[in-house]
């Protein structure tokens, strides 16, 4: 469902963009409240001047600078939301979702929750009939992921015609100690975003459907080698299908 055709409402998220040399480079995310003020390097803009306006309009700050106001996309939200752990970036999340072939209604497990970026994308991918189990060992990351998820959901419901599904269960626990919890769970896919994913593989494997995909998000090739060595030495029933690096290059096209 797309955004409502109506104007901004109090309680929803707004994204302000300031033009710099023909490119929209400065982005400020805020949750609209009648008494609040948006503060940017280009000046101040009271939220009451935004509420009631249609997205896509240019408004001027206290110093006369122009800001473009619109509703943020999910990838913009995760890049601008508060962070504890480093997030899985949208370009990488897109590749992971494609590799796992997630469908509406799927049951997916992720470790760890981090700041909640992957949880939000998985939530959208599995839909209202799906389920996401998100394990996190650190309490501060666990709490922040839940906060970011709830903030997006509550703002979405104000600015959109439908509800964002409440389909993510955040669990504060070490995945290596969760074997008993997963005995009655059947998973369509697993995504591991943790320092030692090899510790999680024996735990999640019994719950993963035959032919299901386990995607692992690692920062460097040394970690990949350690993971493959562990799979071989422990004779874990996993087949390494693909190892990829996702690159992203932005272009700036300007008149000569």
Brief overview:
The chain is an alpha/beta fold and 256 residues long. It contains 6 helices and 11 strands.
Topology:
Layout: E1 13-20, E2 23-31, E3 37-40, E4 43-46, E5 57-60, E6 66-70, H1 74-80, H2 90-100, E7 107-111, H3 117-126, E8 131-136, H4 139-159, E9 168-172, E10 187-192, H5 201-204, E11 208-216, H6 221-233
Parallel strand pairs: 7-8, 7-10, 8-9, 10-11
Antiparallel strand pairs: 1-2, 1-6, 3-4, 5-6
Number of DSSP helical runs: 6
Order of secondary-structure elements:
EEEEEEHHEHEHEEHEH
Q: Name the assembly state.
A: single chain
Mean pLDDT, all residues: 92
The outline comes out as: elongated
Q: How many runs of DSSP E, i.e. beta strands? A: 11
State the low-pLDDT regions, or none: none
Instruction: Give the N-to-C terminal Cα separation.
Output: 40 Å
Beta-strand share of residues:
25-35%
Tell me the Rg in angstroms. 21 Å
Biggest sheet features: 5 strands, parallel
Question: What is the second-level CATH architecture of the largest domain?
Answer: 3-Layer(aba) Sandwich
What is the fourth-level CATH superfamily of the largest domain? Vaccinia Virus protein VP39
